[in-house]
Write a structure and sequence with these properties.
Layout lengths: L1 H23 L3 E7 L1 E3 L2 E2 L3 E7 L2 E8 L5 E6 L3 E7 L6 E6 L9 E6 L2 E2 L17 E6 L4 E4 L1 H20 L2
Parallel strand pairs: 1-9, 2-10, 8-11
Antiparallel strand pairs: 1-6, 2-3, 4-5, 4-7, 7-8, 11-12
Length: about 170
């Protein structure tokens, strides 16, 4: 009887250890990197705000023109906002929810951001929408972006920009 109790205890311990490992296992990390520019000029003195699963993660102040780099764990959905005084804020959604049984380890995704100055562009509520939706493509095992969404956002920006120029 004592041996049976020990075996049952051991099985329960192993099961609980495996369960906690499975919950803590992260498929890997994606490094998002790029430059922030406006009218083909590299910008400095901008801020990147990272929110993961609707919880604030960090604010990064970039004070140089060398670009930025973010390491995001592949276990959540991120909202990344690019902000600079005198410019419209742009945000990007990164879906990093990946099946924990995959072992992506480390992958990269280049994302250059073009900020528009408030003077060049009229501010409207559409600017609160993400400019891109990035997600993991398990078939090709790479990060990619929703091309149709981005295409529609670019059309919307162009329509508003042309209306702004027409009113001048």
């Amino acid at each position: 009887m004592k041996n049976l109790a020990k075996i049952i205890g051991l099985i329960m311990f192993l099961f609980s250890s495996y369960s906690s490992f499975a919950q803590e296992h992260i498929a890997g990390i994606v490094t998002i990197y790029g430059k922030v520019e406006s009218n083909d000029q590299l910008l400095d003195d901008y801020t990147i705000t990272v929110v993961k699963n609707n919880k604030f993660q960090q604010i990064i102040d970039i004070d140089h023109k060398k670009g930025y780099r973010l390491d995001l764990s592949l276990d959540g959905v991120y909202s990344i906002a690019y902000e600079k005084s005198g410019f419209l804020t742009k945000s990007v959604i990164v879906n990093g929810l990946i099946d924990s049984t995959l072992d992506v380890n480390r992958t990269t995704f280049q994302m250059d951001i073009d900020l528009v100055s408030v003077e060049d562009f009229m501010q409207d509520k559409f600017c609160l929408l993400p400019v891109a939706k990035i997600y993991f493509d398990p078939k090709n095992e790479v990060f990619t972006f929703d091309k149709s969404y981005t295409k529609e956002m670019l059309k919307l920006y162009d329509r508003i920009k042309s209306r702004s120029k027409d009113s001048d």
